[in-house]
Design brief:
It contains nine helices and 14 strands. With 254 residues, it is of the alpha/beta class. It folds into two domains: 2-168, 4-Layer Sandwich (Metallo-beta-lactamase, Chain A); 173-252, no CATH class. Strands 1-2-3-4-5-6 form a six-stranded mixed β-sheet, with helices on one face. Strands 7-8-9-10-13-14 form a six-stranded mixed β-sheet. Strands 11-12 form a two-stranded antiparallel sheet. Strand 2 and strand 3 form a beta hairpin. The longest helix has 15 residues, at 188-202. The model has no long low-confidence stretch (mean pLDDT 98). Bound molecules: zinc ion and fe (iii) ion. The site of zinc ion has 5 residues, from loops.
Length: 254
């Protein structure tokens, strides 16, 4: 059995603990700051064995040195981006697999937000840790890659099993919902989800993680290939990645 714990950090970041009951091994995905993660481990009596890093941005790695010092955990990150990451014990690439206790972790290159962003798919936990690639009702800004690259990365994640739990890096969902409704105002699943998100946030509850099937049904950044979405944007016949680029540009200006 795998357990996943969401750990709010900083203002609106999320880190996640991944715990394998059978072996007691525990990993954390991203370390915006060490304090809340150490507290979450302590609350459960868990010992950290591994630190999984998605990408080089400060709000995902700033606490790595302190956490590693406190726990002796081993670091994992993208081989291609090793010079920009905290020192890695294990450098991994697209298609690699490794284990946290008995849980297989598959590495997906999901570059676009940064070049060298990875996601960790854990099939036995029905979970993917996506940070600033696929987010709840959104996706990360395309800072370093191209829209084509980001569309390819998101398509890779969209192809995971529909019950996959998407553990993403930020609580941006309420704003994402407002934007999504400008693209698909008549999408009933989106309207229902936007309302639920409003209620959750008003009650101080997180909207992350989410499920891949709800993202496919409502997240405009996973829907750029759909004829209805292309038509709504006046882009009938345009390439999927071009439509994605238009949606991303509109969100950047939203
Ligand atoms: Zn980032
Ligand atoms: Fe971030």
């Amino acid at each position: 059995m795998a357990e996943i714990v969401t750990v709010p950090c900083l203002k609106d970041n999320y880190a996640f603990l991944l715990h394998d009951d059978a072996t007691g091994r525990t990993a954390v995905v991203d370390v915006p700051e060490a304090g809340p993660i150490l507290a979450a481990l302590n609350d459960r009596g868990w010992t950290l064995s591994d630190i999984l890093i998605t990408h080089h941005h400060w709000d995902h790695v700033d606490g790595v040195a302190e956490l590693k010092e406190a726990t002796g955990a081993a670091t994992w990150g993208h081989a291609k981006d090793a010079e920009r990451l905290p020192p890695l014990n294990h450098a991994v690439s697209e298609g690699d697999t490794f284990e946290i206790g008995g849980l297989e972790v598959r590495v997906l290159d999901v570059s676009g937000h940064t070049v060298g962003h990875i996601a960790f798919h854990v099939p036995a936990a029905d979970a993917a840790f996506t940070a600033d690639s696929l987010m709840a009702l959104g996706c990360g800004r395309v800072f370093e890659g191209t829209p084509e690259m980001m569309w390819e990365s998101l398509s890779k994640l969209a192809a995971l099993p529909e019950e996959t739990i998407i553990c993403s890096g930020h609580e941006y969902t309420e704003n994402n919902a407002r934007f999504a409704l400008t693209i698909e105002p008549d999408n009933d699943a989106l309207r229902t989800r936007a309302e639920a998100i409003g209620h959750a946030r008003a009650a101080g509850r997180p909207t992350v993680p989410s499920r891949l099937d709800e993202e496919r049904a409502t997240n405009p950044f996973l829907r750029a290939h759909l004829p209805d979405v292309k038509a709504a944007l006046g882009m009938v016949g345009a390439a999927d990645a071009e439509v994605f680029a238009e949606i991303r540009a509109r969100k950047d200006a939203f």
